[in-house]
Amino acid sequence: MTEVQDDNPNPDFTKEVKKKKKTRFTYMIKLDYMFEEVQIFRMEVYDCDDKKHLNDLSKHDFIGLAEFVMGDLMTAKGQKLAIKLKGRDGKVVTHKSQQVPIIIRCEEIKNNNDEYRIKLSAKDLPKMDWFGKADPFLQWYRKAEDGGWMSVHKSEVIKNTYTPRWQEMYIPVRRLNNGDMKRPILIRCLDWNKKAEPAIIGEAETTLAALLESKELPLFRRDKKGDLKPDHKYGVLIIESQNLKKKYSFLEYITGGMEVNLIVAIDFTGSNGDPKDVKSLHYMGPPVAFSFF
């Protein structure tokens, strides 16, 4: 189950919600692809009406569903599928006479446990609302195999300010760029709206390799062709601190020469009884036949 995107008809889902109100950031659902098996997946989309009962789907409005075979997704161009949502009656869901698609991407996960940590603030953000200041937050994307952008991380919202300072972000490298230091990354600064889709303040496109050498990132907006226009800045992201933390796997420790000692202890206390007694918890005699009724 994903998170709920409030009042947004074009959501980029970034989180995965767990029970008991515990959440973790993710850009994907991890699974084992079995090429010799037919793995059929079904996704259902709902309009949330009661956040207190997220797991009770009967309390939400059903929008549509989509089914696909994992093998079709793996072999699709760019490993991307755009599937039309259908109602329970099998009819295609439409909005303003247009068919509604759900876009699904996949990618093989590389063995990389490194973690990127960064603390950002911003300055000179433009005025976004008639009343009050901006409510900025950051959404991170990585370049997908099909050339589109895949959402990988979302910061908290800092309300009513033009100079936000976000908490330090911890992003696994395999989520951010799947281990490719030169893979394009997009950082989008958005203005949160209570009852509307977030408005774009500005964007910065970079790579992790370039980001580690940077101290500031100017924010720009795109023209009608979709290209960033560097002629006018819409604020600046300030990198207060950042580092790339190497996290080794257990196998890397072993191949690096680490030795492991295993000690096993068995508690033979007197209260457990004589090991020769079949009733003892530590009975050491010949096998005993039991009858069950």
From TrEMBL:
Transmembrane segments: none annotated. It holds the Pfam family C2. Residues 96-221 form the C2 domain. One of its GO terms (cellular component) is plasma membrane. Signal peptide: none annotated. GO terms for biological process: cellular response to calcium ion. One of its GO terms (molecular function) is calcium-dependent phospholipid binding. InterPro entries: C2_dom, C2_domain_sf, C2B_Copine, Copine. PANTHER family: C2 DOMAIN-CONTAINING PROTEIN (PTHR10857:SF106), COPINE (PTHR10857). This is C2 domain-containing protein. It comes from Reticulomyxa filosa.
